[in-house]
């Protein structure tokens, strides 16, 4: 038997959404499907969606593995390699109620005449864990996970994940100013068909192949939404994304700084820092940070940005199968202490939930909008002996108060639901987002006004004393 010594190199992936993103970023494939993203600095969040484009990510956090291993050139050896990784790293030591040792005996007792047969067996084995984010990628799929920190994507501009209840693909969020967004795709939409192919039971990797394509070509997504199903024909394009947009709004309480963050990509921290400093020079009285439809991205980006708003306190903790592994803190370098209101919705996932949860738990910000998506898992992504790859859920994220983000999401302090007519109006005219014509923004402005007045009153009282 020939044994080849193979050095496993760390894979740099880009969610959520996504470095995309997706994550998931996250699960980021771009579509911008965001399930997971891997970058030079290691951790990435995504909604564990996959960004359908040339980038893959989103969306949960990703941790790079670096090791050496002896790999036998046999299909059965690959099956056992995957089993061993899951056995030693998977976050759930109960393995979804399975006798994991028995599972190994079952799959090693089989005969495999080709790699393709072993690939099918591995996917079936992992499916029994009931975790859509622990997944196998054949060499071609694994190769498609590549570094992308430029923010330029090719695809239709949506983040997707596997919906466990329907066994179909669910849209985490469309990315603003992309073909999918302009076509009217919404967060929580269910994709039932891709160019006529039923998505029931379809793997996210398979969906990526069907949705991704050359710029200028078209793909038809059949979307199930309240009220029925309809087809959306979308033209693929190269997408240049600037994650931060900032502006000022003159109001009765003074000048307010509005910052919209669309994803936690490699340049998001720098752009956010520049935006805050610029708005501070303009002497704004407070801020509205818009994280709506932000599927996540890089973990370190969310931590960097949290430190810009939070002077002290815990930001997030990581819990693996052995308990708490790591905790991230503010570093007393906040750029501002002025009142802050954060806008969130069902498309706010992963890194968005870490940031909003941290600022909410520390009493630094008020959240306005609707419940966030609920994606807070960490994946380890590593190459296998034959060039294929494996993503394994190894940990989960908790907010400073110990709340489990995954599946639960972050509830807003002030709930503001958009009516369908209001949603369509904002989607058809994006210039209205972040204005008084935007009902959620309008409510956030009211909440910010109360905070600004309270802070002024406290300052005046302090002077008198």
Question: Which helices and strands occur, and which strands form pairs?
Answer:
Blueprint: E1 3-8, E2 50-53, E3 61-64, E4 67-72, H1 75-89, H2 100-108, H3 115-127, E5 135-137, H4 139-143, E6 152-163, E7 168-174, H5 179-183, E8 190-194, E9 197-198, H6 204-211, E10 218-225, E11 228-235, E12 237-240, E13 244-251, E14 254-261, H7 268-281, E15 286-290, H8 299-309, E16 314-320, E17 323-329, E18 340-344, H9 351-361, E19 366-369, E20 377-383, E21 389-398, E22 414-415, H10 420-428, H11 439-464
Parallel strand pairs: 3-20, 14-15, 15-18, 18-19, 19-22
Antiparallel strand pairs: 1-4, 2-6, 5-21, 6-7, 6-12, 7-8, 8-9, 8-10, 10-11, 13-14, 16-17, 16-21, 20-21
Helix pairs in contact: 1-2, 1-3, 7-8, 8-9
Protein traits:
alpha+beta, 22 strands, 11 helices, 465 residues, globular, disordered N terminus, single chain, 6-stranded mixed sheet
């Amino acid at each position: 038997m020939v044994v080849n010594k193979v050095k496993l190199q760390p894979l740099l992936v880009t969610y959520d959404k996504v470095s995309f993103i997706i994550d998931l970023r996250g699960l980021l494939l771009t579509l911008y499907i965001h399930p997971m993203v891997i970058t030079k600095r290691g951790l990435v969040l995504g909604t564990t969606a996959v960004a359908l484009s040339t980038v893959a990510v989103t969306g949960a956090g990703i941790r790079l593995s670096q090791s050496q291993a002896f790999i036998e050139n046999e299909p059965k050896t690959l099956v056992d390699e995957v089993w061993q990784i899951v056995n030693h790293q998977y976050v759930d030591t109960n393995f979804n109620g399975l006798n994991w040792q028995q599972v190994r005996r079952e799959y090693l007792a089989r005969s495999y005449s080709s790699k393709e047969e072993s690939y099918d067996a591995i996917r079936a084995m992992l499916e029994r864990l009931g975790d859509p984010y622990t997944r196998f990628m054949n060499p071609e799929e694994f190769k498609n996970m590549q570094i992308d920190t430029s923010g330029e994507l090719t695809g239709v501009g949506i983040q997707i994940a596997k919906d466990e209840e329907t066994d179909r693909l669910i849209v985490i969020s469309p990315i603003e100013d992309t073909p999918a967004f302009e076509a009217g795709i919404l967060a929580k939409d269910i994709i039932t068909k891709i160019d006529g192919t039923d998505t029931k039971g379809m793997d996210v990797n398979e969906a990526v192949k069907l949705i991704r394509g050359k710029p200028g070509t078209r793909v038809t997504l059949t979307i199930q939404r309240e009220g029925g199903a309809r087809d959306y024909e979308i033209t693929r394009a190269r997408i240049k994304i600037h994650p931060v947009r900032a502006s000022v709004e003159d109001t009765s309480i003074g000048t307010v700084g509005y910052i919209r963050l669309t994803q936690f990509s490699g340049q998001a921290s720098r752009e956010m820092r520049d935006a805050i400093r610029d708005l501070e020079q303009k002497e704004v009285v407070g801020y509205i940070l818009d994280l709506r439809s932000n599927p996540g991205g890089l973990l370190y980006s969310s931590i960097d940005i949290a430190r810009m708003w939070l002077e002290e306190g815990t930001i997030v903790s990581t819990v693996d199968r052995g308990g708490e592994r790591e905790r991230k803190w503010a570093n007393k370098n906040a750029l501002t202490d002025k009142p802050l209101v954060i806008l969130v919705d069902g498309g706010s996932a992963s890194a968005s939930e870490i940031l909003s949860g941290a600022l909410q738990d520390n009493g630094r910000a008020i959240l306005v909008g609707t419940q966030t998506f609920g994606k807070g898992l960490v994946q380890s992504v590593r190459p296998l002996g034959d060039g294929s790859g494996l993503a394994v859920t190894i940990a989960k994220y908790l907010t400073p108060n110990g709340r489990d983000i995954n599946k639960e999401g972050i509830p807003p302090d002030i709930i503001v639901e958009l009516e369908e007519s209001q949603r369509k109006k904002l989607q058809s005219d994006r210039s209205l987002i972040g204005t008084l014509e935007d009902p959620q923004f309008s409510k956030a402005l009211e909440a910010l006004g109360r905070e600004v007045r309270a802070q002024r009153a406290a300052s005046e009282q302090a002077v008198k004393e």
